[in-house]
Amino acid sequence: MTAAAEQSRVWTRKDLIGLEPLAREDIEMILDTAPQLLAVSQRESGIKKVPLLQGRLVVNWFYEPSTRTRTSFELAAKRLSADTLTMNVSTSSAKKGETLHDTLFNIEAMHSDIVVIRHGCAGAARLLAENHPSSIINAGDGAHEHPTQALLDAFTMREHIRRSRQDPNATLDGVRVALIGDIAHSRVARSNIWGLKKLGASVVVCGPSTLLPPHIEKLGCDATTKLKEAIDGADVVYSLRIQLERQQKCLFPTMREYVRLFRIDNESLKAAPPHAIVMHPGPINRDLELSSEVADGPRNVILEQVTNGVAVRMAVMHLLINRPAFDTA
Ligand code: NCD
After folding, report:
1. Which CATH number fits domain 147-301: 3.20.10.10, 3.30.1340.30, 3.40.50.880, 3.40.50.1370?
2. pTM for the whole thing?
3. Which atom of ligand 1 approaches the CA of 69 most closely?
4. How far is the CA of 282 from the centre of ligand 1 (A)?
5. Crossing angle for the helix pair 24-41 and 187-198, nearest 10 degrees?
6. Digitized pLDDT (tens) for each residue of the chain, 329 residues in all
7. CA–CA gap between residue 227 and residue 241 (Å, rounded)
8. What's the DSSP call for residue 219?
């Protein structure tokens, strides 16, 4: 991209539904906006806030359990000086049969600006985005996409590559990422594949054949059932949670066999290059997909992912609300 084109890059989208529809430039715009916002949270003195969303209302609307993502969005909104509201789904009118649309029309009657939604059905966020004026952020729709998780993952990978290569402009071009575990039920895997491919990385997915969706290679990644093969040469070993709540029946014979063949631990990591980092989106099933020695050890960057998540979500909310095409009058 030329310097002039680079300068004229502007964010024009109202919503963030997934990484599949985004261009590399869109993803990079978010990643490049995050560092200044990370610095806000890291201020040692003074106020850990900026007024970029002052007077705006951000609504958190989670139909599925969440610790990291919900608190991260809430904190991100607060650090941008927005007002925040959390919908308690278990006590809301959804329990009385109200549709998603009707609930959102009512929230919008109270002038919401951003609605962060997590829902068990793929497509829920998109359905709302296409029919409502609020900016909708998909915080996970079924096994489909979880775009902000993949954005914070890409940001964390890029920061690590930049530090280890001592190159502040290094990109993810040519970086090899191995996604290990329950690929079939993972929206994190799907968003990571879309995002990382656009950023020039190569992706290999690995797990028991029952947890690898048929034709996953069509998304542009490699697939294998052999852990050693997947992590040999990987710059990033990304362990995914076994999503027992989404599996209709047990898709591998025993936990013990899964551990033996697919767990990321000091033994299996011997196949990875010494510089490889270990990531996980959380929550971890300790000692199932990831051993405690690795989860608590020096190679993992799991808490760095969490820290970066707030900054990346601040960047997303700032771009959606302060986009030039948006009439702020
Ligand atoms: C992920 C999710 O909910 O999809 N977690 C998260 O958002 N941090 C992954 C998972 O639940 O395994």
Report:
1. 3.40.50.1370
2. 0.95
3. 7
4. 6
5. 110
6. 555 555 568 999 999 999 999 999 999 999 999 999 999 999 998 899 999 999 999 999 999 989 999 999 999 999 999 999 999 887 676 677 889 999 999 999 999 999 999 999 999 999 999 999 999 999 999 999 999 999 999 999 999 999 999 999 999 999 999 999 999 999 999 999 999 999 999 999 999 999 999 999 999 999 999 999 999 999 999 999 998 776 666 667 788 999 999 999 999 999 999 999 999 999 999 999 999 999 999 999 999 999 999 999 999 999 999 998 654 44
7. 16
8. G
